[in-house]
Amino acid sequence: MPHSIRPGDLLAGRYRLVDLLSESGNGRFWRAHDRILERHVALHVISADDPRSEGLLRAARRSATVLDPHILRVLDAEELDGLCYVVNEWGTGTSLDIMLGAGGVLSPRRAAWIVAEVGAAATVAHGAGVAHGRLNPENVLVDLHGSIRVIGWCVDAALHGNPDPRVEDDVDDLAGLLYAALTGRWAGASDSAVPSAPREHGRVLRPRQVRAGIPRPLDVLCDEVLDLSGRGRGLRAPESSRGLTAALEDFVGDPAGIPESLVERLVSRGSGPVRFSAVPELGLRPADEPEVEPTRVVRAEDLPRDEPTTPVPDEPEEPTVAVPLEAPAAAGPETEPDAPTQVTEIDNADTDTGTDAGAEPGPVVEPEGDLPTQAGLPSFDDDDEEREGRSQRPVPGPPPPPLEEPAPRPLFAPEPPDGGPVRRPRPGAAAATGAGDYWPWDTGTGHGTATGHGTGHGTGTGTGVGALGSMTHTGSGVLGEGVGVEDDQVPGRSTFRLAALLLAGVLLVVAVAVAFNLGRGRTPLGSVPEDEASSTPGSAATASATPEPLTGLSVTDLDPQAEPPEEYPELTGNTVDGDPATSWRTSTYNQDLGPAGLKTGVGLVVDLGSAAEVRSVELDLVGEGSQVELYVTEEAPTAVADLDPVADVTAGSTESIELEEAVAGRYVTIWFTSLPDVGDGFRGEVSEIRVLG
């Protein structure tokens, strides 16, 4: 690879090199500017004498034949001035590996939708016989609009020494993408920077064994494609990408809102290191490897602020505290789980990386201010505290005073000092009748006749003993006090009066309306009596109208699934010529019509000449057992898939299809979904059609 090319150079007199994005294997990947079309492009450059150059150009030509909106297209490929280069469409966004490392795993529906989008592109490319070869998370891009774009179709594999990739490997990688999006681990056929999936006894664990909460359909799908259970059920046929995509689309259902939610997960440059979340290895450590004590990660702000701290010289930029599990809990409530944590750093970018439900983001520590960090637990040495001249432990204060017994409360209320009665009447109420002090449980007779407006309303006489006597007379005060209350002081009484007045007004209006209608010979509701309605000439004509055959009919055939789309059009006029000896017929099919047959149906379209109300359709058929659907439309139909039938019958040799109610329209479509068996096949035949309206 020549070392003379550098940013600013002009390649092929057209592409200005801008940024060197990566360099590996004697190849370089540039962001360049197309001076002719004024746009950014991606540029792969290797030396012309590189053994991969011929395969790279061949892969570029094959990739250019695939047209799909998910694939970043090949725009140019050439060998010039000792260089071999391929120009691709430029995409801006976040690759799946960066998204998983920065924000954790995706929710099941988001993961299934992303892989379904990649699978749709793979289905198109595999149909043309072109495989990608390296469908790993690094080559799946979520752009700024939430759409999915695939990088380096067929070209990236050629740059890695595989100019003729296999379709079967793409199917494995599709399942690996789903596995990675759900678990944050890579299990596909290609290599990837995403950490490999955990293994047990030499076999990759299923997604539900790695992370909880993964739906069973997605777990089974990964198992069937990757053959994780070792049952030999792996799908390796080229059509597997189509089946996998269909299964994922069924799981996702309506994808509304998913692209917008992925935009929130985009990552831009400068947000710091990317960390993949921890996955326990489930005791898969070799027998000769010493046991390592698991650690937990504690945020720096959870440490005691008043303790002396010692910065860690080896890791000044990672404010992480490793605390043994057996140590006293020194961290705050946000201490991470006890599982061992594996951290992988990749260069990433900086937007909000909101984590999905069920995701477990990596242990990103957020330092606060210039607080240094320390390894291990803080020191609590009393001698050091005294030498420092400060005390770290609060001095206990004096004990609280003993609880005092509450003052005894009297059983009865004390007598008023002014000598008045213990109970006083309510404000605004008259004084109680009777002489002497008030005593609510008087054993004498009641207070005679009491007039007033208390709980009841009216005048009553109560006689009885004590409180029971007060309950027997209406209009008395509380507990037999003969206390009168003004009408305006009773809550809700004014509302009841207003409601009564409104009800009386409504009844009066209804009575006037009924009297008016009866006075002019109508029913109480104002409608015309039935005997008068039947005597009206116009209505009598409508009620007595009977369906009559419509004239001026013309018929055309309807066979949208044929090539050409016609079924004996020269015979269609025989169905409305009034001659039962002439007829129109279908072709003779080896299979009956329907979902399992060659066609789902075939039929005739009757043009009424103008819009009319159709009441019934009479058919004279040759043979019995036809299944007929009837459609009435305003426009001439080209297919019936989106129409609703007005009738669906099994027809005999003479069939009259009566509609429950008249349907207005100009075109009547007679659609056969099943034909009679004529011995050597299935064929339908119509001799006459009559439309009544």
Automatic annotation (TrEMBL):
Transmembrane stretches, start-end: 498-518
Positions of the UniProt region annotated as Disordered: 275-448, 520-589
Feature: compositional bias, Low complexity: 319-341, 427-436, 534-549
SMART domains for the chain: S_TKc
Keyword Membrane: yes
Comp. bias regions, Pro residues: 395-419
CDD domains reported in the protein's UniProt record: PK_MviN-like
Protein name per UniProt: Protein kinase domain-containing protein
Organism phylogeny: Bacteria, Bacillati, Actinomycetota, Actinomycetes, Propionibacteriales
